[in-house]
Amino acid sequence: MTAAYDLHQEAMKWSSKGNDLIAAAKKMALLMAEMSKHVRGEGGSKKELIDCAKAIAKASEEVTRLAKEITNRCPDKRMKTNLFQVCERIPTMATQLKILSTVKATMLGCQDSEEDQEATEMLVGNAQNLMQSVKETVRAAEAASIKIRTDAGHKLRWVRRNPWYQ
Fold it and tell me: Is the pLDDT of residue 91 over 90?
């Protein structure tokens, strides 16, 4: 899935050392890549597909929690509002992903390929939207983190792996 790849590329720009938000985003990207293998039928059972979706939902809860921590500490009202709006989409999409993966799992091996194709398209669309929201959350959190004073007790490091000027 390209959505997992895009999120992974965004997360790989940053070091996850000292940044739990980046670590959670990387974990979500890897779980999404694993789920895409299940959807394509490259191994795995129905239970593994559902478990993978549940793991993605759990990781998305972590991303949302960390983003809300940043939101609560950011003094800039516009950045705070932007980050809050972006991260509020994540729990809804994660719940939809769990539901859609369960529907897809029940249709694995089904004879009616039209219904199976429709379930796959809905699952993929939801996964892409979820990954896009997480990607936007990472970007908004990075911007909001710059405004947070370091003496306020918030220790979130944003260290680029390969700076743009090299």
Answer: yes
